[in-house]
Q: What sequence folds into this?
């Protein structure tokens, strides 16, 4: 059994064949699909998907940094209302993104800090989006990390020093997705210095499809191509990648195994 720890199967990219895509993942052995929220506009669709596949889909709740703008406080209020109304798998997708737009850097920082505090209060892990923002996020976590905080740096594409910085926090994993299959990304050179016990698998579908599907819509069944690449990098059987990353995901997100 595999766990896709980060997939946006509730977005409109899957409106025409969502049920088929979910079933294809299950048939491929990707039985747990973790759904990170984006903003107030995606909550209903995400929860509807979870309700339709309650044994396979598990929602997170958070405000994505890309959705932090002039109305960020209103959006955050919606997230809080939902987050404290029921049990979620994690607080996410949260973090900072300085790649597209730096207009709301301070607001992104405030939104991230607030959601981290909620995660501590609720004893939930966090799913961190860190695009062109490792230094900013590290400066925050260096101050507020404690033994109540766990989580994942989703879609990790950093360097060796950044991987070691994350490992030093103690309760965090690296989320490895399709980028690991891209030759120019040279992620194999980084992961050679990272123990497999620090990794979990993800697709970030519909984005970042692994080879041989690069450039096409990603989906959770493609997780096996990521696992196969890790098998090559670590020089271990595919079964070991499956067992170790699944165990890591179950422990981090406190999933109940069937």
A:
């Amino acid at each position: 059994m595999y766990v896709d720890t980060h997939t946006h199967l509730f977005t409109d990219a899957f409106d025409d064949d969502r049920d088929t895509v979910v079933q294809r993942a299950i048939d491929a052995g990707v039985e747990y699909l973790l759904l990170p929220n984006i903003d107030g506009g995606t909550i209903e669709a995400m929860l509807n998907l979870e309700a339709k596949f309650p044994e396979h889909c598990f929602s997170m709740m958070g405000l994505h940094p890309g959705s932090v703008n002039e109305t960020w406080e209103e959006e955050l209020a919606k997230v809080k209302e939902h987050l404290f109304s029921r049990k979620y798998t994690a607080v996410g997708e949260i973090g900072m993104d300085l790649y597209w737009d730096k207009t709301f850097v301070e607001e992104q920082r405030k939104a991230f800090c607030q959601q981290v505090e909620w995660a501590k209060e609720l004893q939930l892990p966090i799913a961190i989006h860190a695009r062109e923002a490792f230094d900013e996020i590290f400066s925050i976590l260096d101050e507020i990390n404690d033994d109540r905080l766990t989580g994942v740096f989703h879609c990790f594409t950093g360097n060796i020093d950044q991987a070691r910085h994350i490992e030093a926090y103690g309760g965090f994993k690296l989320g490895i997705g399709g980028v690991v299959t891209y030759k120019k990304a040279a992620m194999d050179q980084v992961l050679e210095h990272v123990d497999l016990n620090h990794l979990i698998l993800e697709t970030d579908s519909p984005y970042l499809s692994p080879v041989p599907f690069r450039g096409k819509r990603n989906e959770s069944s493609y997780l096996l191509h990521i696992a196969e690449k890790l098998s090559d990098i670590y020089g271990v059987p595919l079964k070991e990648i499956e067992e170790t990353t699944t165990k890591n995901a179950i422990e981090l997100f406190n999933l109940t195994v069937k």
Summary: The CA atoms of residues 188 and 198 lie 15 Å apart. The longest helix spans residues 105-122. The radius of gyration is 17 Å. The mean pLDDT is 97.
